[in-house]
Write a sequence for this structure.
């Protein structure tokens, strides 16, 4: 029996994972700053950490999963001016766009999804504690800073030394004891939203919310903290600094997913609309996009191209076709194969899982060709079990049997229902005028299309074979 091993960014080692409380895992994942439509690079961490969550659940754990929403930030305020909307309207609009994208890709909703602006009280309490413990100072300009030199462990996550760190030129530098100190709280600027504090009105710096909200929902110490690797410094270093200065133990294990790249670079907004998730979902099913995004190991860069996406979709359709064929002889069970378990337990080795799925698919198709249905079904069960953990089970009702195009699928279903009812009434009419040739032709044509007609007491029902 293998046990779960995970890579820890803090120790730069793969080590056995043991939750603080047996059978219970707490995860905090840094979520989106809701300042624009999510593109495919934004959504990868949601998919990667969803695979981790599903595997932890399948391994017998109860998972409390927190993913925050940063709904106040310079970029949101900037966008609000640009779009001539209140800042909260901008934040709400893009928060919904992110939710839609996560759901279309079958990412399970977080247990709690706290917004920064809903936790100002917790942030003020944390800042008061940091002042009381002598780690935070208010130089009188309305800002509050954290004194990083007082924290010996500062920068150990990113493996840097404070004295090597060149701080960015900063207008507030003259107020700081050390130019590397960072703002916990920023004083109010004219026309910007602000909240009252003992140090004057203002708004939170970006890092503060995660320390406050992780503490609120997961307590003093929790199992896993995650995010994109671009968050290691400064965001996660600063979260650790705030939390340790407050006396919290904070996260035991740090996990970071790599970027989606285009032409070797981190995906950027300048690439335009074609990479926005909602645009991609007009051409591809959610299950296909999910399969592609989840196909690389979470610590490997994923070089995005439409060519690679198309190739990945072709491969996925082969798997779907196989499962569809064998599902005709009955529902396919989901089995956790021992080789699959070993791969997942090895720091979520998805590429090895994909190799296993290919192997099972070949063997399953061979069995089908030789009419060995029981063997084919066994391979089908292994494949379906693996796809379920990857969040790509074609029979998952979350995809509404149509890969996340929920609304479109409902519309198609309504239209089909109308068409089939129309054909059936034509058949009935032909029968009633004793034109059995026409009635039979309609029946045969419907059957050829793979539609099953069933006459019941409640009337005629149809289903897709
Ligand atoms: Zn964070």
């Amino acid at each position: 029996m293998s046990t779960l091993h995970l890579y820890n960014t803090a120790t730069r080692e793969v080590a056995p994972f043991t939750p603080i409380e047996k059978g219970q895992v707490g995860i905090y994942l840094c979520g989106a700053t809701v300042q624009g439509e999510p593109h495919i690079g934004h959504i990868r961490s949601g998919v990667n950490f969803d695979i981790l969550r599903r595997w932890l659940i399948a391994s017998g754990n109860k998972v409390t999963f927190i993913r925050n929403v940063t709904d106040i930030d310079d970029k949101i305020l900037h966008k609000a001016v640009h779009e001539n909307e209140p800042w909260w309207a901008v934040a709400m609009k893009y928060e919904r766009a992110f939710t839609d994208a996560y759901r279309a890709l079958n990412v399970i909703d977080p247990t709690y999804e706290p917004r920064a602006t809903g936790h100002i009280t917790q942030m003020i309490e944390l800042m008061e504690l940091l002042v009381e413990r002598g780690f935070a100072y208010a130089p009188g300009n309305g800002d509050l800073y954290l004194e990083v030199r007082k924290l010996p462990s500062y920068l150990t996550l990113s493996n840097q030394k404070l004295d090597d760190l060149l701080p960015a030129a900063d207008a507030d530098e003259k107020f700081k004891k050390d130019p590397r100190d960072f703002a916990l709280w920023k004083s109010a600027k004219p026309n910007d939203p602000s909240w009252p504090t003992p140090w004057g009105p203002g708004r939170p710096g970006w890092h503060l919310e995660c320390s406050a909200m992780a503490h609120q929902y997961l307590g003093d110490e929790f199992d896993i903290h995650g995010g994109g690797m671009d968050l290691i410094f400064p965001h996660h270093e600063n979260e650790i600094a705030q939390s340790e200065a407050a006396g919290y133990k904070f996260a035991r294990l740090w996990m970071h997913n790599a970027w989606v790249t285009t032409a070797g670079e981190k995906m950027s907004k300048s690439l335009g609309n074609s990479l926005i998730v909602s645009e991609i979902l007009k051409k591809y099913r959610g299950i296909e996009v999910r399969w592609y995004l989840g196909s690389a190991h979470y610590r490997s860069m994923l070089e995005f191209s439409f060519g690679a996406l198309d190739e990945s979709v072709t491969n996925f359709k082969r798997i779907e076709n196989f499962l569809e064929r064998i599902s005709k002889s009955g529902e396919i069970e989901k089995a956790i194969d021992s080789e699959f378990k070993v791969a997942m337990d090895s720091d979520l080795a998805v590429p090895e899982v994909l190799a296993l799925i290919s192997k099972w698919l070949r063997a399953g198709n061979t069995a089908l060709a030789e009419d060995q249905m029981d063997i084919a079904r066994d391979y089908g069960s292994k494949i379906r079990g693996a796809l379920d953990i990857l969040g790509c089970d074609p029979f998952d009702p979350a995809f509404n049997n149509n890969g996340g195009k929920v609304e479109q699928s409902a519309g198609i279903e309504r239209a089909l229902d109308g068409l089939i009812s129309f054909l059936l009434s034509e058949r009935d009419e032909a029968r009633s005028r004793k034109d059995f040739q026409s009635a039979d032709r309609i029946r045969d044509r419907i059957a050829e299309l793979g539609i099953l007609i069933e006459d019941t007491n409640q009337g005629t029902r149809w289903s897709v074979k």
